[in-house]
Amino acid sequence: MRVLVVEDQKKTASFIRKALLAEGFAVDVAEDGETALELTGATSFDAIVLDIMLPGRDGLSVLRSLRERRISTPVLLLSARGEANERVEGLNAGADDYLPKPFVLEELFARLRALGRRGGEQASSILRVADLTLDTVSRTARRGGKLIELSAREFRLLELLMRTPGRVCSRMIILEKVWDYSFDPGTNVVEVYVSRLRDKIDEGRTSKMLHTVRGVGYVLKESA
Fold first, then answer.
1. Is the pLDDT of residue 127 over 90?
2. In the CATH scheme, what architecture does the domain 2-120 have?
3. Of 24, 54, 118, 196, which sits 20 to 30 A from 138 (CA to CA)?
């Protein structure tokens, strides 16, 4: 599952992010409501963990905006306040679940997985670009119906590219999303994995899908 965590407290956000990563979730973090709305407009998420108390645009305002834009991604609200009226207001605004702070991590994991299953009833787990498909539940990839064997890291790289088809992903974005680096380690690890992935999805085919945009990054798209 790809999860967006919207939390302005850096320590709390980092704690949740590391815990989710350790459980196998893919995680993006936004520290304010405006950034959260930008991310949801550019990336498809399986669930959103949304803190109510945010600087500027608060969580309930973000939630209403998401629903007004017909973004139906399941939302789990977090708040240090547990008043019933706040829970009711959040649920009426379109939230799918509510978890008061402090919470037990295992409960957060369980609630997110439940939301993922619920959301899966409404949205397909299959990503498609031309004849390339990626099943995010069974974690299998196929091109033209032929199974492609991928390592865990190759799968994350392909998922990132397939969630943003036609859009260039920079090397730094790939390092952040696939390797969870917030800095450039100065190695050619991205280039090595892109080369491996290209060999697996494009080898022996006249129509190439994984392209290098020199000086910018990489893009997955059907050849013209």
1. no
2. 3-Layer(aba) Sandwich (3.40)
3. 196
